[in-house]
């Protein structure tokens, strides 16, 4: 799957209110003017990943992450600047950037949300609504939960039914494979799970910052994640083998909080974490398998997580989802299982009888097929791991999906280079057909058989998936429709070659009529104006892949629109430095022939400004005197023009008269002053005099280095130690924390009071390498920090040469706020 990246098309006249989801609009219409609403803002431009065909998984994932991050950095600036300005006036409180989907979570008033909808870069805005943790299946569709006594070491009947032991006997037990679940958590103390956690800061993610280490508590849903993980990797500590891949390792994202509820933003954050758990694209720590035993509250099509799921597939991960417990009626498919890029698993009992409560198709979510679920697996009275080291018999599609995830762990143990398309083809083509002949909307393609899937890969593993491109995003009129320029190629396998292409409507406000839905290059007409996502799928008879295109349909003929201009972020320099301007401008190409002229000018300032090339986006500006200057970048297409301003704060040339404060990593002496590594020295360049400004041993810092400090205008200090230290009245202060020290005296007899100013673990600074080594403040008041090694926080990955900016909503205990990359 590759969402296309293209210039914003000619006449982007989609009404701003049409970008706002109906559910969100209803909330906004009943909200007070100063009510804060949390929303997800998705941008139109997406990175095209269709060309990525790296042979090595590590290289493929690295390039995916880097390109997604680069696209987000290039396109989100306008949204971030608007939100930051509204945070300054109190009409917005926070934002979090998601590079995986090129979107942001924003909390703001209805007025600000309407402002965001007016930005051309924005595709849609939806409510950051709650997502409830999985509940037990409806009464009447399950046997009462059964406690299990210890038995022999044989595999449980459900494990034997899908032929997992046959792969064990060939030496494939999941070794070297990492599986992840998105659930209520995992009970790490369970004897069947404790030794299989991968461990480390990159193996557990709680987007709500309630638990730093694995746990499984989510109110009434507590234990659900332990059930699903037990079926994937559980062993025989309880006397029988309960898991599919007992030698695999696990990691987990706790997408439901302790109250049994998650949020759309929290789940987006979890998907992004799964792609890059340690925040470093250079390391290969992405899980091989992802299990999602959860659904939205109600059946129907919700594509909120389709982009996340599609990116995982591009990375070689086939996301497995529970079909849902909405049966026995037809048309009860749930999202995200029915999304085009997801793999849905329904349930049968150990006699291959359909689970009555399982959701049924057809699915109507724009995928290449309406068959739902894709397949079935055991999910009735399945013995699995439970809280407190116990075992329970559970029922539902939440128990069926982990069988498929565990099967993938075994198959990838045997065929580690299998792509997501090959993994899906092996599961489907080798499944045991049940019910009516062929695929149906009860059993899908059949019941899981991992031995048959292994043999299928043995025979068909050389077949490579087709390459498909839906084309670039386009804007058309309702009257003209669109000419689709899709392309698909294949390797000719399996013989005889027979590549079938199919266009489908993935999402949109009305019906679409294709000239020939099976021709890659065809036409399409639309019932009503709006934004449409069309999907082109290529299937060679075994493997199927798809790509999408965004079509903006306007009611009338395109008219010339004013250029889009971005002058860049405000900046500060010190004379005699110049300002390197990084503006940009784009246009719709009208009037023809296209001729866009850009010009830098001075709006205000105390002195003259010289541009090396006033018509270049990336000009250099030199300033005669210090002061505050406003510069303007104007773009003119010959008929219409637009402009954008930035502020350059020019400071006078630095003088050598100000005192210099410093701290050392070792003890020593200078200028007749002895110091330790917990002290702060002051040097006066006027008198050439050294003095002890702060004696750390006087105030409980003996034995630790001061990694970072800042002296505030009121004379108080911010300090961060290089190792954990215990401070009276506060407790343990970590090297990712910041203390605020208010002195009553300084120098050789330092005294005063501490308070915890910033707790890093509350906002994502949890690993050993995320020590704070520099502290400062941006002109807008945001806290600036640098870390010892790379740091991964919500929405941002920074290296040790970078500066992170933290916009707090609360300081102290707890600390909360949002991160952005400052430098």
Describe the protein:
It is a single chain. By secondary structure, the protein is of the alpha+beta class. It folds into 5 domains: 16-128, Peptidase S8 propeptide/proteinase inhibitor I9 (Alpha-Beta Plaits), CATH 3.30.70.80; 146-460, Rossmann fold (3-Layer(aba) Sandwich); 467-554, Sandwich (Immunoglobulin-like); 564-651, Sandwich (Immunoglobulin-like); 660-821, no CATH class. Mean pLDDT is 91; it is low at 1-12 and 139-152.
Identify the notable features of this structure and list them briefly.
alpha+beta, 31% strand, disordered N terminus, Alpha-Beta Plaits, Immunoglobulin-like, 7-stranded parallel sheet, Rossmann fold, 4-stranded antiparallel sheet, 12 helices, 823 residues
Spatial ordering of strands, largest sheet? 8-9-7-11-12-13-14
CATH fold category name of the largest domain: Rossmann fold
Quickly count the helices: 12
**Overall morphology:** globular
Distance between the termini: 32 Å
Q: Considering the protein shown, what is the CATH homologous superfamily of the largest domain?
A: Peptidase S8/S53 domain
What's the CATH architecture of the largest domain? 3-Layer(aba) Sandwich
Largest sheet entry: 7 strands, parallel
- Report the C-alpha radius of gyration, rounded: 29 Å
Number of domains: 5
**Residue-averaged pLDDT:** 91
* Residue share in β-strands: 25-35%
Low-confidence parts lasting 5 or more residues at pLDDT below 50? 1-12, 139-152
